[in-house]
Amino acid sequence: MEIRTISGRSVSAIGLGGMPMSIEGRPDEARSLSTIHAALDAGITLIDTADAYHLYADDVGHNEELVARALRSYGAASADVLVATKGGHLRPGDGSWTLNGRPEYLKNAAKASAHRLGVDAIGLYQFHRPDPSVPYADSVGALRDLLDEGVIAMAGISNATIDQIDEANAVLGGRLASVQNQFSPAFRSSLAELEHCAELGIAFLPWSPLGGIGRAAEMGETHSAFQSVARSHGVSPQQIALAWELALAPVVIAIPGASRPTSVQDSAQASTVKLTTDEMTALSIV
User: Fold this and answer.
1) Mean pLDDT of 229-233
2) Which of 90, 146, 89, 100 is closest to 123 using CA atoms?
């Protein structure tokens, strides 16, 4: 497994997104635990979660607790895994999403996440989504305070523009560790943010790197170039999509979601796929 870094912390180039294991259509716990264990077996050392990855109003933090159980049951071999979680984006339990970027809320949410994860300090904590009702600097300021207090080890942001990346990095005193934006063959509007992160040396974590839940399986059908390149390498088009993203910049760490061991095992192989210049050109054409 190829290794990349987040603020000097070594992690696998392919991570695991935990969202599909906790929202609509989520599998039973046994399969979810097997999926996380399969990721660890494959060499994945970054797991992405959030307190909002849940289904019902009374199971906030479902995925965080699931990840914590999986790591505990895996044993000492999970000690090097970096768990990244997020706060500020909420699910009331009726299928909708709401925002809360108030500093005091974020501080309390981070401490609640740390408790669910069973850690003294969260490895990477990210502000999930900007709240228009709260000045961005105030929300990110909460992460700065959490860093200074030792509640979190690294701070990141998600769903951010270039201006917000620069503002967050300034508020954090140059300690912005990561940016997590949507990016995939079907959604490339965050390419400018990806390139900006590459210039600054900030890790860029594409969410839904295969197009989102329910669409990953259609990769070869909806993106013929990826299917063609996949055939030439004898791998899945999903692996080609992830390999393409990794090749865009050394700061990219893809975090495909999974709810089956076979899916995460396939994704984990993407970092071994080396694409030619011609293939990268063909895949980069919109």
Assistant:
1) 96
2) 146
